[in-house]
């Protein structure tokens, strides 16, 4: 029975027509996730569909032969084929949908223009090092195509071209992205935010990273200089005031001494005890 079915399918594949065709649905693909193909049979309505992978029949008129790998359901416009837990053995091979005597055969290839294979959360690893100029490293496993990553500080892209190395692993890539901060750039305050994309589709790569508070040494030095200048001004002002007071006191004593020489009894009687003592001492020291 199976051999007859295979022979019938092979014969039907010889009648290729654009009356039926299949296409990929539900982009982007996730590595290890599901891939859905849709066979459009609107030109031959009411016909059940047979699906083949290479020369192997996987679905025939709703009967799925490998239930752990494939699932199928039909609608009036055609048939959906879901490839579960897709891996590299499911790509680079031909898939055929057959309706009535018409068939469509095409390779399921990874095309950088319209297919993106996103990594699982467990396949993305990030390591931060705020103390080093090599600030961040991101590792992607099982991704397609090679991602483009940028790092932002306060909404500004601070590095246009991070260092990216990749190696091909079957149909996918293992990619390492290193972000090295230029020496002239000092980062503090706010957050660092990393954004990576595949074909203009954003890839989640983790949370933002908080930066330490800026220590503005220039502002601190300015305050120190200002305090020193104010201190010097206060000392100079105090010196001037004290010199002025001493000068006034000396002039007063000189005037008193001059008066005492001419009329000592009258002048001394108008002074209190402490003023008399200061005057006597000053006269004793003045020639």
TrEMBL record:
Domain of life: Eukaryota
Stretches assigned to the Ig-like domain: 18-116
First and last residue of the signal peptide: 1-17
Key words of the record: Membrane, Signal, Transmembrane, Transmembrane helix
Transmembrane segments: 224-242
PROSITE patterns: IG_LIKE
Keyword Protein transport: no
Protein name per UniProt: Ig-like domain-containing protein
Organism lineage: Eukaryota, Metazoa, Spiralia, Lophotrochozoa, Mollusca
